[in-house]
């Protein structure tokens, strides 16, 4: 601290010394003439403009009233120079090149004119140096605190920042869902660009009147405004970090549900339309039923719109802690209130796939599977491989096979047995991978495709037929891949193979894929001729493991509407009514409320009315004629069975109908008699 500042702190008076002329700019310096006021202001200008604290100007104003003596200025200059040399060692080292140049000029001027030094300017520099060193110390302390905070989560989680960044993709759960991948417009923008997707639509025009934003769908201006429908979601329990939710129908919604069932039984479509227009425009089951009607009429735009409204209605009732992306939220399909959400998601997924958005459809498929991965009520495992291949998510498919094969036996499903080696083959064709990764992918693909051909030989010939490829003589004449392989297999396995071939045959049409498949088909035939024990083991598995298919596979086939797979459904499935809003309900359903019995049951119905009523869920001839005696009840049961057989025969007839072209004459100009 200088003597002048120390004297001010003590409160000593100044003025005993004779005022010199240095403060007027007229006292000569030791090595040159005095500077003019303009020159002094010019040199002092940059320092004034750089002042950031108004209180730094106070000493300058006081110096005009109490000019210091030349002896006092010399002592102050010497003390400040010594202090500046000690305090500015760290600060000057971190200054920029321009600051160092300016400091050099100021030091040179002070050496030449010590009596004319600008004291406030030197104080400013000194304070700046002190401030810089202080800020540097604070920054170092802050960095140390931040490093300490970052080390704490690393210790608790057992992962370092470097390892987290290296395996960020693998550390995510397998069924991790991203919100941005649930919007089909994002995928279409990647394919065609934002201008092609949105057109001339401006952002302000795209704003809708619905206040609530949702992830599953984007509300449209043409939709009615949403209001509470009497449906909500509640948290049932939490076990081992997994939360179990359920949709709940309140009294108002239960009455709507009863009216909907009555409208379905009456087979009156106008009743369902009136229910939506007059009572509740967001009744979920009515929207699902109308969507099926529009789809059968080939009005796919309206059918998709009804599905999106149903999803929007159900998302608005989500519980606050229900998450689509966490993978820890569960819904039990055995509860009828939850089934509408599963079905709406599945139908929306199918529309997305047909629309050309396989990546978005894959994200919805993962969402459905995450809601009940243990039971998989809609059997999404039969579809997720196809969507992964179409979306070119080969790494996801191979990772799923590696993680789930041990406890889910995915290799025993024909779709996984063939799709996983196909994914490895596509990975082996990617140039951006290393040579080691490419070699490993090729070896893995060769190993798995041979196992698939040995385990499911009945897939090859239908697959080649759908691809329009004629097999060579050796393959066509061999009994292992011949017609006997398709006839001898069980019906449950026929359903799975037919479903896979019909759905994914377009992915095998690539010439490179066919050449790769042909090579391994011949290698499998060599193993068969050599009587490899693996071939006999696979045959034993086919005869013992596919006696009957579970109910969720039947439900998946019905919802997928693949004709060849539906033709292979057993009679116990085709003989019972299948409703669009609840196809093949679980046998162990958890019923929360029941429908009241009808007061005036229909009577005096003819055979035709009974036939139509057999298509409805609550049809039971025995209840209608319960009071007519055992003889009439037996007759009603026979009638019910007869109608069911007739329905099954009609379905088979419609599926097996093939239209043949009329015979053409190879010689149209020949002499033909048309008499």
UniProtKB/TrEMBL annotation:
<feature type="region of interest" description="Disordered">
    <location>
        <begin position="1"/>
        <end position="166"/>
    </location>
</feature>
<dbReference type="GO" id="GO:1990112">
    <property type="term" value="C:RQC complex"/>
</dbReference>
<feature type="compositionally biased region" description="Basic and acidic residues">
    <location>
        <begin position="70"/>
        <end position="84"/>
    </location>
</feature>
<feature type="compositionally biased region" description="Polar residues">
    <location>
        <begin position="157"/>
        <end position="166"/>
    </location>
</feature>
<feature type="compositionally biased region" description="Acidic residues">
    <location>
        <begin position="136"/>
        <end position="148"/>
    </location>
</feature>
<feature type="compositionally biased region" description="Acidic residues">
    <location>
        <begin position="59"/>
        <end position="69"/>
    </location>
</feature>
<dbReference type="InterPro" id="IPR006994">
    <property type="entry name" value="TCF25/Rqc1"/>
</dbReference>
<protein>
    <submittedName>
        <fullName>TCF25 factor</fullName>
    </submittedName>
</protein>
<feature type="compositionally biased region" description="Basic residues">
    <location>
        <begin position="119"/>
        <end position="131"/>
    </location>
</feature>
<feature type="compositionally biased region" description="Low complexity">
    <location>
        <begin position="16"/>
        <end position="39"/>
    </location>
</feature>
<dbReference type="InterPro" id="IPR011990">
    <property type="entry name" value="TPR-like_helical_dom_sf"/>
</dbReference>
<dbReference type="Pfam" id="PF04910">
    <property type="entry name" value="Tcf25"/>
</dbReference>
């Amino acid at each position: 601290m200088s003597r002048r500042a120390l004297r001010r702190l003590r409160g000593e008076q100044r003025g005993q010394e004779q005022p010199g002329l240095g403060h007027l700019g007229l006292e000569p310096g030791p090595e040159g003439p005095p500077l003019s006021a303009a020159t002094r202001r010019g040199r002092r200008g940059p320092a004034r403009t750089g002042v950031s604290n108004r209180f730094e100007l106070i000493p300058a104003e006081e110096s005009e009233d109490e000019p210091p003596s030349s002896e006092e200025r010399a002592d102050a200059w010497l003390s400040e120079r010594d202090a500046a040399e000690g305090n500015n060692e760290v600060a000057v080292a971190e200054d920029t090149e321009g600051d160092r140049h300016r400091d050099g000029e100021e030091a040179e001027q002070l050496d030449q004119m010590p009596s004319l030094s600008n004291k406030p300017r030197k104080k400013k520099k000194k304070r700046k140096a002190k401030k810089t060193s202080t800020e540097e110390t604070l920054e170092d302390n802050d960095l140390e605190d931040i490093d300490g905070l970052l080390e704490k989560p690393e210790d608790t989680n057992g992962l370092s920042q470097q390892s987290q960044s290296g395996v960020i993709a693998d550390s995510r759960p397998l069924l991790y869902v991203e919100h941005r991948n649930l919007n089909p417009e994002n995928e279409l923008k990647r394919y065609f660009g934002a201008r092609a997707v949105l057109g001339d639509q401006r952002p302000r025009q795209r704003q809708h009147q619905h206040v609530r934003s949702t992830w599953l769908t984007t509300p449209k201006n043409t939709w009615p405004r949403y209001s509470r429908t009497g449906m909500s979601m509640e948290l049932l329990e939490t076990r081992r970090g997994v939360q179990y939710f359920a949709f709940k129908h309140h009294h108002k919604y239960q009455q709507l549900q009863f009216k909907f069932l009555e409208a379905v039984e009456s087979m009156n479509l106008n009743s369902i339309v009136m229910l939506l227009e007059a009572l509740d425009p967001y009744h979920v089951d009515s929207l699902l039923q109308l969507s099926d009607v529009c789809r059968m009429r080939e009005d796919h735009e309206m059918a998709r719109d009804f599905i999106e409204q149903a999803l929007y209605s159900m998302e608005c009732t989500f519980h606050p802690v229900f998450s689509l992306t966490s993978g820890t939220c569960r819904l039990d399909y055995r509860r009828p209130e939850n089934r509408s959400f599963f079905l709406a998601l599945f139908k929306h997924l199918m529309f997305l796939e047909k629309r050309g958005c396989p990546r978005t459809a894959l994200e919805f498929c993962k969402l459905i599977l995450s809601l009940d991965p243990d039971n998989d009520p809609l059997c999404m495992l039969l579809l997720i491989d196809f969507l992964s291949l179409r979306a070119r998510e080969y790494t996801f498919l191979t990772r799923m096979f590696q993680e789930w094969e041990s406890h889910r036996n995915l290799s025993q499903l024909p779709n996984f047995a063939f799709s996983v080696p196909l994914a490895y083959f596509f990975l082996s064709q990617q140039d951006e991978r290393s040579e080691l990764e490419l070699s490993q992918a090729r070896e893995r693909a060769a190993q798995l495709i041979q196992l698939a051909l040995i385990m499911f030989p009945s897939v090859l010939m239908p697959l080649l037929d759908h691809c329009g490829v004629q097999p060579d003589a050796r393959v066509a004449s061999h009994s292992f891949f011949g017609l006997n392989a398709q006839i001898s297999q069980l019906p449950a396995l026929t359903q799975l193979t037919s479903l896979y071939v019909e759905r994914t045959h377009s992915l095998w049409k690539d010439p490179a894929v066919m050449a790769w498949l042909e090579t391994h088909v011949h290698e499998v035939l060599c193993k068969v001729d050599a009587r490899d024990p693996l071939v006999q083991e696979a045959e034993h598995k086919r005869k013992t493991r596919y006696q009957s298919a579970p109910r969720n596979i039947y439900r998946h086939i019905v919802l997928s509407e693949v004709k060849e797979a539906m033709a292979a459904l057993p009679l116990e499935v085709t003989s019972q009514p299948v409703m669009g809003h609840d196809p093949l309900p679980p046998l162990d359903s958890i019923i929360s409320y029941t429908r009241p019995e009808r007061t005036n049951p229909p009577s005096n119905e003819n055979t035709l009315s009974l036939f139509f009523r057999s298509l409805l869920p609550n049809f039971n001839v025995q209840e209608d004629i319960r009071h007519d005696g055992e003889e009439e009840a037996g007759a009603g049961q026979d009638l019910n069975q007869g109608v069911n057989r007739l329905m099954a025969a009609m379905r088979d007839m419609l599926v097996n109908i093939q239209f043949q072209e009329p015979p053409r004459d190879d010689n149209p100009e020949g002499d033909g008699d048309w008499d």
